[in-house]
Amino acid sequence: MSRRALTERLSSLVEHGVLRRAAYSDRPPRYDYLLTAKGEGLLPVLIALQDRGTRHVMGDGSLTAAPGSEEIRRVHDLVGHRVPITVDGPTVLFFFPGAFAPGAQAYPPGWGDIPGTAGCTLEARTYATRAAEFAALGVHITGVSSQRPDQQAAFAEHANLPFPLVSDQDGRLAASLRLPTFRAGGTDRFKRLTLLVDAGAIVRSVQFPVPDPAGSVDEMLHRVRH
Question: How far apart are CA 141 and CA 92, in angstroms?
Fold first, then answer.
């Protein structure tokens, strides 16, 4: 895209209240373009359009990432890109569809029939059992899902997790990184994937797809060690 076309489009989005300009340099004058509340309201629409394109335009309509698919390429192309999340050092970010505390939350209808949804609790608990080994290597662990914070807190307490869970309920991470999602129970949910980021939140390694939730933890530990 030419600089002129980009400027015109950004100006139009500012004019319509989707973006706002925030100065970050006086000499020369430069601006960040940030989403307004009106712009953030478009995130679910953008995620839905991306999901439809991935499944029905570039794929065969299934939820499973096919070998060599655009979806897989897009995720692996994140290597070298910065994740818009604060980290305290090298961190494993494992994205999962949803994990639920028994008695506190109900699984969405048809959850067990959706490819890739099974294994969230197993994956989280496996990371919990390996947490000391990751810590000894100076690597933190963080789980990410689109669940509400209270749902995540209930699950973390139930599973006795020694690491935090981060909510992407507003879809910021999903939209900014173009992460693969699917919709279940009226909510956009992450397909299972894992990113290893450095202290600057730059992606250094990617796991996607993740057919073996528990095995992927050992694989990631191996990557960190080597």
Answer: 5
Helix axis angle for 213-225 and 120-136, nearest 10°, is 20
Q: List pLDDT tens digits, range 169-219.
A: 999 899 999 999 988 888 899 999 999 999 999 999 999 999 999 999 999
Pairing of strands 91-95, 140-145: parallel
Residue from 64, 46, 67, 42 nearest 55 by CA: 64
Annotated domain spans of the chain: 3-39, 41-225
Centre a 10 Å sphere on the Cβ of residue 155 and count the other Cβ atoms it contains. 24
**Domain spanning 41-225: which CATH class is it, in words?**
alpha beta
Rounded Cα gap, residues 95 and 207, in angstroms: 10
What is the rounded distance in angstroms from the CA atom of residue 195 to the CA atom of residue 215? 15
User: DSSP letter at 50?
Assistant: H
Burial call 79-111: b when 16+ CB within 10 Å, e when fewer: eeeebebebeebbbbbbbbbbbbeeebeebeeb
